[in-house]
């Protein structure tokens, strides 16, 4: 079982009509790691919205023919999704489009509302009819309701934010404006930049700005609303500094791409620091340090530099297999299809194996077995995050303590279950070394939640139970 985050958002505002759909395609491609279930693009051509959305990877959904059918325009909003709240259905593909009395709106959302169930229940009791099971439609509904009572779409969004609790980085498109917003805690990243020809680009991560040739300007502040229009750029900050900043620490550990910079901290540097801290906390006599591709590689390099143990590439990942891959023979081990060990590197060696996390232990056990079969003498597993002990309500699909191996077994017992000679997790107190001076959310490790814990979530992304690993 791998950890997944909800999605990636991308938007373009151009001073003159341009092929904004192509720009969105390349932006989504750079954000593909954030969501691999579905994707979509909505283009605004002088107030007329045209869209294409479907299940699948970006290059599967946006074929040359599909892209050619999207018109030029001055604005576009795009989304790539991995669902946490809401099932994997075509109806949940984003951006969500809404027609209302005062116009049209398209909305892309990254994150998860912690009060989604309560909001939806209240709205349904008042007569609201929902067409999806995604909490993004809840956000769209509340913004639309406020729009009928306010003078502008940005004021409607600002009013809606008083009702929303939890994680949301949004890009919203109206007929005349492109607007982005980040929740007051800043759980999920959001930034913007500008291309040489004057197009403004908004994205979940800075790597997507680079992919389309845009120069990074800055991160969107927690609680900030930014409006792009013919009048220029306007920033609304009435929600800023109203709540403590709590960027999800797992953005640095796993979610974000290595080359992104989030809130002034490079992801690569953060992972190097995690590896260094891990080496100090859990040293071991070994011959080689190797990382599990891709998110374990940087931490492995940091562990190697701190410990003085040689770093090697010991596992190779098949980069052509995405989440949509289905093994034709159920008896085949999918880990062996996605990963292979380099026997010449690991044979007869004492290995320090670095990975980003352990959820149920299934995948970790299979990787350890892979190295054993390749001739590794010892396998000492080190994890560049603390043990998962609590559910996440902000967009990570850790939904139940029942499914977390660390809630049921000691570190020594987990090591035995996965077949490792030893096991060490990053200490919770060392998380601060990853993110500079940024305050962060580590509730899934510590149980200290920045918002009220929902009584009801109706969220279950786990199909198997802990007993399946044994």
Characterize the biggest β-sheet: 7 strands, antiparallel
Provide the CATH topology of the largest domain.
Glutamine Phosphoribosylpyrophosphate, subunit 1, domain 1
CATH homologous superfamily classification of the largest domain? Aminohydrolase, N-terminal nucleophile (Ntn) domain
Contiguous helical run count:
15
Content of β-strand:
25-35%
- Order of strands across the widest beta sheet? 3-2-4-1-10-9-11
User: How many structural domains are formed by the residues?
Assistant: 2
CATH architecture of the largest domain: 4-Layer Sandwich
Q: On the 0-100 scale, what is the average pLDDT?
A: 90
Counting helices, strands and paired strands, the structural category is alpha+beta
Regions with pLDDT < 50 over 5+ consecutive residues? 323-331, 459-470
Helix content: 25-40%
Q: Based on CA inertia axes, which overall geometry fits?
A: globular
Radius of gyration: 22 Å
Question: CATH top level of the largest domain?
Answer: Alpha Beta
Number of strands: 24
What is the straight-line distance between the termini? Answer: 14 Å
């Amino acid at each position: 079982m791998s950890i997944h985050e909800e999605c990636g958002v991308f938007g373009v505002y151009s001073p003159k009509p341009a092929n904004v759909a192509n720009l969105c395609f390349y932006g989504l491609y750079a954000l593909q790691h954030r969501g691999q279930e579905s994707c979509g693009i909505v283009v605004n051509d002088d107030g007329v919205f045209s869209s294409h959305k479907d299940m699948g990877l970006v290059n599967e959904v946006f074929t040359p023919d599909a892209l050619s059918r999207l018109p030029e325009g001055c604005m576009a909003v795009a989304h790539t999704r991995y669902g946490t709240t809401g099932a994997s259905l075509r109806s949940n593909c984003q951006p969500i489009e809404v027609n209302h009395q005062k116009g049209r709106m398209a909305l892309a959302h990254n994150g998860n509302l912690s009060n989604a169930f309560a909001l939806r229940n209240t709205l349904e009791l008042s007569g609201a009819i929902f067409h999806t099971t995604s909490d993004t439609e809840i956000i769209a509904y509340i913004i639309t309701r406020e729009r009928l009572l306010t003078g502008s779409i940005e004021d409607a969004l600002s009013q809606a934010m008083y009702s929303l609790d939890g994680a949301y980085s949004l890009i919203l498109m109206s007929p005349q404006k492109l607007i982005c917003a980040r929740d007051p805690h800043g759980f999920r990243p959001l930034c913007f930049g500008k291309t040489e020809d004057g197009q403004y680009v908004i994205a979940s991560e800075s790597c997507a700005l680079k992919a389309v040739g845009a120069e990074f300007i800055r991160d969107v502040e927690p609680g900030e609303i930014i409006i792009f229009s013919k009048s220029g750029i306007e920033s609304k900050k009435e929600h800023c500094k109203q709540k403590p900043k709590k960027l999800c620490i797992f953005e640095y550990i796993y979610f974000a791409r290595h080359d992104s910079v989030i809130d002034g901290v490079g992801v690569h540097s953060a992972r190097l620091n995690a590896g260094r801290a891990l080496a100090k906390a859990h040293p071991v006599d070994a011959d080689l340090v190797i990382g599990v591709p891709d998110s374990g590689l940087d931490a492995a390099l940091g562990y190697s530099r701190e410990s003085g143990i040689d770093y090697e590439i010991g596992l190779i990942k098949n980069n052509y297999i995405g989440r949509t891959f289905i093994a034709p023979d159920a008896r085949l081990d999918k880990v062996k299809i996605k990963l292979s060990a380099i026997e010449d590197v690991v044979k007869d060696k004492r290995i320090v194996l670095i990975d980003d996390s352990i959820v149920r232990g299934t995948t970790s056990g299979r990787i350890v077995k892979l190295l054993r079969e390749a001739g590794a003498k010892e396998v000492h597993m080190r994890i560049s995050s603390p043990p998962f002990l609590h559910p996440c309500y902000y967009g990570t699909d850790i939904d139940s303590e029942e499914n977390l191996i660390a809630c049921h077994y000691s570190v020594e017992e987990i090591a035995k279950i996965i077949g490792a000679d030893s096991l060490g997790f990053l200490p919770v107190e060392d998380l601060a070394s990853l993110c500079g001076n940024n305050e962060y959310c580590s509730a899934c490790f510590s149980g200290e939640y920045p918002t009220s814990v929902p009584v009801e979530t109706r969220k279950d992304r786990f199909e198997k139970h802990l007993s399946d690993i044994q």
